Q: What sequence folds into this?
């Protein structure tokens, strides 16, 4: 392919609306263009790289025994109402009516559609296990689309769904997909971690996220400094370290704290540490109000509370509800004397010997409170957000934080959808049994953006060879001559004949312009053909990542590049 014939509208300056590196560089490199908020067109270079990601995904999914299908993007509301998700999925689900006034949606995911398909076609245990996947456009009406392909409304996703006859089979399908995902992301040249995760609106009993490690990531990867435990921030567990204190003598005492409502202000007013204060949170849920107690220096993890109570919605109570639950005003809530409301407490409050709590009276707190004896708790548990330095739940190590970008998520769904939608089969005894399902997603377009977030420098993109739109760029420089042109043609033909995709920069531009564009586009290897080197029978081979330059005979360029690709694949 000759560069002069390609649509590559490169830009010198960053686009004004781009916040992250991948968005800036993909626009500057002429790979994507914005149509409207969160929706992008792929230009030739961007689409070439996207197709390479897709090919890697297809090869590994096929190797794992999955079969490719292609499902409709428009889905009838009836299926979503069967599963129970039509009313709870949220505004990200773009709903509309067709000309016959039938309710539909644009698919953000395809659990309902695939379950409907399989329940119609599979009737016997002999047809299981089954794993079907597709690579298709999805739409989620994000309230604040941003970061280019990282958080768009329209995106390309690989989603797969497994159907098994037994829990053992479902576990095996899950492991096969987890292994396939690790192969996919390794082949893409990404540094990643598989982390335990919450299942969210997809549902199910167990899930893992695949996180690409990058300083610009908006997700937090929590991992242990001693073992292989890793989770996202929502899921991260904290080991409870029991502490034993003698019971306090006496009763709690009231202290006047006029206008002092926040943990920081209470600590300052009473001249003590936030670690001595119990934070009493009044929360509103669809099952009624609840109370959660945390140590003053800790933050609530809403997901843990939702999962513990099996609730869907949770939010901080307003002053009216606080007064109803506690009898006191906002800012002075405490756990003593509460009635007819569930009280959950994080384990860490038991590390306080003599606590300070709100007195459920205006401008008043209580001191000398014993968390073991002076109030009732319905359930102790892990209800707080993890923090760096917390104890690992699996070993004696400590938790550390890294930034990450989620590029894949796998779920063990169980019978959540098959039971709701009556997707059953006849077992060997002729008994009707629900299929056990798994769900496995990869953000194909996000993989491309994540690769750039992880691989770039001040000059532009540094694509891993498997994802680059072209593996090699041939750059003739200097005065035009038959020798330079003939060598460029020969090298170009030999590379393509060897199965190495090459781009020929045949533009009439200065060398500096060509070199700058080659670096911006992130093409892994550059072959420069100039008069001086060619006079000695050589061309120059440059490695975009290492910036290493070396002279190579034109007839040895194929083997030299293959060696570099092999070294890259081996991590050398």
A:
């Amino acid at each position: 392919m000759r560069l002069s014939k390609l649509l590559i509208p490169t830009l010198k300056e960053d686009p004004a609306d781009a916040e992250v590196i991948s968005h800036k560089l993909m626009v500057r490199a002429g790979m994507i263009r914005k149509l409207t908020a969160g929706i992008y067109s792929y230009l030739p270079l961007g689409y070439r790289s996207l197709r390479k990601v897709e090919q890697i995904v297809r090869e590994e999914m096929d190797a794992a025994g999955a079969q490719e299908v292609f499902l409709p993007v428009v889905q009838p509301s009836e299926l979503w109402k069967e599963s129970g998700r039509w009313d709870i999925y949220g505004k990200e689900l773009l709903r509309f009516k067709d000309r016959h006034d039938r309710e539909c949606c644009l698919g953000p995911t395809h659990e309902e559609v695939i379950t409907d398909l399989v329940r119609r076609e599979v009737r016997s245990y002999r047809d299981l296990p089954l794993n079907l996947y597709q690579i298709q456009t999805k739409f989620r009406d994000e309230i604040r689309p941003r970061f280019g392909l990282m958080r768009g409304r329209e995106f390309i996703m690989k989603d797969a769904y497994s159907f098994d006859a037994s829990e053992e089979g479902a576990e095996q399908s899950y492991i096969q997909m987890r292994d396939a995902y690790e192969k996919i992301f390794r082949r893409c040249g990404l540094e990643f971690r598989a982390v335990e995760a919450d299942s969210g609106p997809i549902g199910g009993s167990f899930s893992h996220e695949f996180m690409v490690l990058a300083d610009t990531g908006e997700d937090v990867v929590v991992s242990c400094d001693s073992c292989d435990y890793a989770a996202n921030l929502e899921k991260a567990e904290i080991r409870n370290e029991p502490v034993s204190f003698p019971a306090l003598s006496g009763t709690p005492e009231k202290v006047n704290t006029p206008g002092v409502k926040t943990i920081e202000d209470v600590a300052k007013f009473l001249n003590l540490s936030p670690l001595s204060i119990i934070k009493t949170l009044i929360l509103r849920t669809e099952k009624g109000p609840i109370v959660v107690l945390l140590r003053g220096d800790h933050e609530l993890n809403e997901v843990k509370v939702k999962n513990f109570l099996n609730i869907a919605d949770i939010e901080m109570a307003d002053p009216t509800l606080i007064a109803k639950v506690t009898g006191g005003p906002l800012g002075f809530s405490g756990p003593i004397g509460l009635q007819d409301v569930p009280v959950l407490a994080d384990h860490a409050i038991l590390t306080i010997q003599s606590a300070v709590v709100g007195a459920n009276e205006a401008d008043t707190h209580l001191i000398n409170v014993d968390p073991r004896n002076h109030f009732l708790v319905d359930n102790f548990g892990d209800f707080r957000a993890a923090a760096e330095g917390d104890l690992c739940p699996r070993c004696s190590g400590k938790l550390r934080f890294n930034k990450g970008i989620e590029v894949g998520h796998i779920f063990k769904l169980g019978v959540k959808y098959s039971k709701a939608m009556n997707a059953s089969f006849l077992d060997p005894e002729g008994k009707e049994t629900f299929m056990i399902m798994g769900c496995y997603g990869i953000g194909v377009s996000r993989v491309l953006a994540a690769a750039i977030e992880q691989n770039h420098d001040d000059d532009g993109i540094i694509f891993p060879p498997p994802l680059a739109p072209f593996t090699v760029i041939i750059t003739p420089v200097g005065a035009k001559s038959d020798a330079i042109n003939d060598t460029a043609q020969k090298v170009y033909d030999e590379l393509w004949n060897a199965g190495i995709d090459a781009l020929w920069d045949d533009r009439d531009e200065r060398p500096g312009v060509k070199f700058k564009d080659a670096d911006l586009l992130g093409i892994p290897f550059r072959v420069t053909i100039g008069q001086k080197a060619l006079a000695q029978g050589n061309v120059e081979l440059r490695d975009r990542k290492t910036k290493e330059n070396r002279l190579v005979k034109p007839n040895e360029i194929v083997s030299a590049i293959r060696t570099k690709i092999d070294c890259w694949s081996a991590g050398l």
Summary: The mean pLDDT is 94. Residues 253-381 form a domain with the YbaK protein fold (CATH 3.90.960.10). Residues 167-187 form the longest helix (21 residues).
